[in-house]
Amino acid sequence: MGKRIYSSLEYKIDTSFKYRLYFFSGLIFLSFIIFVAQLVNLQIIHGSENALKAEQFVRRSESLPAARGQIYDRNFRTPEKSIPLVSNSSSLDIILNTSLFKNDAKKIQEFMILFYRSLGITKAYYESELSEEKIKKKLRSKSQILLLQGVSKKQHERIISFDNLSRYVMFIPTPKRIYHMGPALAHITGYVGLPDINDVKNREIKLYQLVGKSGLEIQYDQYLRGVDGFRIQKRNSEGNIEEERIVEHARMGNNLILTIDQKIQYAAYSALKNFRGTAIALKPATGEILALASNPSFDPNILSGKNKQERREHYARIMKNRGFLNLAIQSKFPPASTFKTLVGLAALESEHKINFQPSQTFFCNSRFILKSSLASVPDQEFLCWDKKGHGNNDLIHALEKSCSVYFYNLGQKLGADAILYYAKLFGLDKRSNIDLPGEVEGFVPSKEWKKRAYGTKWFEGDTINLSIGQGFISVTPIGMALFYAALANNGKVYQPYIVSEMRNPLDNSILYKTQPRVIRDVPIKVSTLEVLKAGLRAVGKTGTASRVLNQPDLPEIAGKTGTAQTRRRGKSSSNHAWFIGYAPYNAPVEQQVLVAVFVEHGVGGSVGAGPVAREIFKAAFPVGTFVRTDKPETVRMDEELPQSYEETSEDSEEEE
Amino acid sequence: MNGKIEKLDIPLLFCVVVAVTCGVVTLYTQEMNLSESTGKWYKQAFYALIGFVALFAASRVNYQLLGSYALVIYIVSIILLILTLIKGIGYLPTERGARSWIKLGPFSLQTSEFAKLATVILLGQYLVLKEREIKSLTVFFVPFIIVLIPMGLIAIQPDFGTAVSFLPILFAMLFLGGADLMHLGSVLLLGAFTLCIPMYVEYTKLTLIQPLVELLLKNNRSDLSSLVNQIGGKVWLLLKGKTVIYRDVPLELSKKNFYYLQEMADQVIEENTNFFFRFFINDNLLLWLGITFLLVSLILLIIRFARGAVGFRKYYIPIGMLGICLLAVVVINKTVPFRENQVIRLTAFINPDQFKQGAGYQLRASKPAIGSGKFFGKGLGNGEMTEGKIPYVPESSTDFIFASWAEQTGFLGSVFLLFILLSIPLRGLQVSFESKDRFGSLLAAGIVALIFFHMFINIGIVMGLLPVTGLPLSFVSYGGSHLVMSMTAVGIIISIKIRKYAN
Description:
Chain A is elongated, with a radius of gyration of 37 Å. Chain A has 26 helices and 25 strands. Residues 569-573 and 641-656 of chain A have low confidence and may be disordered. The mean pLDDT of chain B is 83. Chain B is mainly alpha-helical. Chain B is built from 20 helices and 5 strands. Chain B starts with a helix and ends in a 5-residue tail after the last helix. Chain B has a 3-stranded antiparallel β-sheet with strand order 1-2-3. In chain B, strands 4-5 form a two-stranded antiparallel ribbon.
């Protein structure tokens, strides 16, 4: 340990070195402090926050989608014993087995192109999924690469037959909605699909959930949807599930029991097959809708399905023929001759004011002349549908023969105000508030409206037109049906409804039961009802509808036909056919079923709409379920044929 | 002189043993829950054994011998580095990555690790030899050459992380070797300016893309906004008038759109940036300022020589350097085309959430991994973020092993390991302080710098304080070459310590 001998320079260097060493040690201390500070920051101050972030890396919360509620018809007993109208099943999705490609985005891309090409899927459908960036992103986030949703049978067979395709893909079942009645019930059930942006934003619906898009599916969406459960998965770094914990089980949506009768519904839909039209069957005593069909229809199975291509094509086709329109509640037409009953009712109810008796007759020589009050304007001529004329008729016979001249006279005598008053009283300008979305209201004109819209006063000619249900007035088929329901039920109108019960899917307990509710109780004199019912009975027995509806295998039907005039721009005028009636005539109202049929361009009331009504009545009253108290008459009347009226409103066909 | 054992420096050895054990334990816990182990932990334990043998061997060897053979060792290491670059000899463990290994029988040797030690030894020797002339510029720059040769060879492997790790060692040794602070400061300033400022500018430009897109959308120019969205950072090159390749074809923009875009970009810069950014993108201003500084410095230099006023040195060197730096910034702004991913890589640590992939991802995973350990940690074997074959924190067995340790042992364990790790260079500094000769002091200090900067940079990266480069954590990270090298280095320190009393 010899002492060092320093030169002055050496000494200087040595001290400077020592100071620099101190500085360096200071640096090490400082870095220690910095690191400890950062550890405090990360582990203690932001510890919980970082733990949460780490949790998101390691654990994934996955939703367990709840099955939507099932839908049954009125014959429901228990879920096990009944055949549902709408139920759940599963369809196949195709997922790429990425591990076979060793997560090589390039190879996956090549395979995807091969896959879509060999299935003949056009490029536009998959192009966006094909970018290498996107594939890499999916690989990194370990999310599945979904090749195809809702594989059709043909595609399935094709994939299986190609070994170079089937080796690399997996078929995964996913929930699917099955509509057992398909298009026949489509306007009632509606269909489901993935939510749009508004649903996600405003209704707290998650992107993967199915939501109702129309019909009951949308009306009762929140009850049908159920509550999703969720589970927390811990995945190891290879992506395999290591630990799984179900935090909340999915709760299936509630089952709906409808008032619909499957048989009647089928009958109604198949009877309408060749027309554009709608048919409603309801119970006037409660408001239960037994059937509600509209044609053209759509197939909810395709629209709810996952095959994008099929779905798009079907959607385009249905949009083209306006098949999404539920004609029963979403369209309005002139009520035509079916309105005559209401004119009769208005006259009978105000008989003392206008000095009218049901036995009063008007003579029909097939034409009615409206005298002009001004010399410069010629007289107006209104025709009856039968060129031979009906001779002298009282109200019952006028209804039976649907004699227009009788009602021209009656309407002129009565005045527009009384008719419009009763039209409004029976809610022809209101919505029925049936539990289906998108209902429109009918239109009942008024003198003030005419002034506003046309700038002219209400002419007497308008009243004449109105008295046979032509002109400005237009009603929805359901609205008109409710008017006849009021007649059948002595003035009482029940709220029409489709969902009768909502049941818990687990224990089948009733969660909600629709109580029949009177929405309108119009006081009608008993004498009035007697006369009108007699008139309607005569229509079915010997009158305009008798040829089609007076048959031994049917109960006695009371009703009214109608032939609505339309004039479509650029097309020859054609007629819409109406029939509204109820049966059995003599049975208590609880047993009666009211059927309203509307057929667009259906030639004439009994030719176009009658057979449809007949099929529905047949389904509602199979032979043996009714007793005919009378003998089926053999005398039948000629069909109410179309004729040209002097004038009809340009836009009598109003639809939405 | 009591027993041999005492000479071995028990505290230093203790720290090394603890640190290595922590590493092996971490590696073991990472694979505990795996069905088939990759055996990293016992391989590491085996390397540690070799390391200890090397440590003892190195402590036996007189370090002064190393000084005599410094140049030989250095040249051997350079030859090894060159060999590594040759395809047949150099060996890549994976398809991607750097060709940094030479296969030696069953082992593969990372030659750059050996080069680090060799460079430190040569630097030490050189600085001791030239200790009296260090203030002269030529002597000051020779160490740069010594370092730049292996750095360059490593950089073309390409292993930038390792290459960059030479620089702090160089500066630390120059500093301790008595280099002039003005010289050192000038070089550091130049380096900082030419790297940090362009990075700052480029980073800010990247953050401006989103506001630019939004502004364009607000003005109903969705065509331009989607274009900007797609080309991203290249939009600034486009605005400089350079051709931008987009989808393999040069992008063409009509004059009207070009000027409109320029106007919008100016508006965005006006609204979203601070004074510094606008100062540093103003090339003309920088140019004139730089030239002015240089002229002032030149005048001072002339005065100095004319009047012999040595004190002026304090002024003209910093002013001149500032001028050169500003000019360098202009040159880099004008010439070096930074690639977007490079910029992101170097700046992602500032805000890792902004960059979801690449460098940003590592930090996005690493910081929560450390933080989720909280105070007591998740317990050994429960490091969910860092365990398994493909951990959520990438490289959790090598470069990011500290995150794994911190996750499992929490704040307590992390501070403990930090303390143990930083004790090693501190103890080394003490040895350097006590060493009887200048070579021993400088060699020990150099080795300390080598070990310390590895630790500093590595932990800084893992904690999100520094840009991500690939550097192992000495004594802890998985990897034989670096472990053996570090332990040999500790052996040399011990050798210096043992011989501090000897003559």
